[in-house]
Predict the structure of VWFA domain-containing protein.
Amino acid sequence: MPPKRITDTNIDSDDSDISLDLDTSGKGKGKAKAKPGDKQRADKGKGKPKDVQAYTWEASFARSWETVQEDEAGSLQVSVEDLMARGRRRRLLGPSSAIRRTIIRHLVLVLDLSASMMDRDMRPTRFDLMLQYAREFVSEWFDQNPLGQIGVVGMRGGLGERIGEMSGNPHDVLRSISERHKLEPAGDPSLQNAIDMARSSMNHLPTHSSREILIVFGSLTTCDPGNIHDTLDTCIKNKIRISIVALAAEMKICRELCDKTGGQFGVVMNEGHFKDLLFELVPPPAQKALGRSSIPAGNPSADLMLIGFPTRLPDTSPASLCLTTSRPFLSPPVSS
């Protein structure tokens, strides 16, 4: 039987992954036949340096992850602790220049009492840790701001609840947040209702005092009856400063509330960071510089507050009675 020729076999079928050069003339022996697509891909990579960036926006892109260094075990705990320590040192050093701060402060502490505060990502729960740090915050706040006043508002069930009236006595404020059974979390929070209630309690305050709202927010949603941006515009008009400490994550509306009113916003990373963010708001905030259009015409140099020092009336003034004893003055009265 004559030997079978190799050209009779079907090795060039579409199902085969092997391509052979069966040129009987012997030219190009041992070389694979190049495909047109491979040549195009090879030419595409030529003439392009490796250092050239593919997009123009990469030139100004900050690679923030390169500043975080891992330890030998591959953990980021060391870098996180270093960032927190830098923040503590920055607060302890304080500003290098003189800053005009508010003496008389009025603060409304808004506590999130929604169902999300029962999560156990912070021990024992978010709710219990919030109450503990709130009591420590109130004691430290009154220690550094003896002329200030604090009110407490809660967010629960889509409503704003007044927990404690505005008071300058720290014992009254601590008493209002000490009864845990009256503050059990339930329902959803409402930022708009809580801010409106806090704002209504500060409408009668004088202009020389600061108006501040501190919100401890642990939810990722807010149940509002209307447009919260209208409430934001009202707070800006009334010069109310809003600061938020978020326990879950950053929300766009929370960031806008803080940025547009001049407050502070922070997201808690752990229990110690939660306390640091709260105690950053204990010192009095710096006053904003007044523009030329906002300075009164009668007092162009400074915005001063009149204090009631007593003055002696002349002898020809009519007789008056003492306010406490209702007796006439034997000497010329003194008015304040």
Remarks:
- Residues 164 and 176 are 6 Å apart (CA to CA).
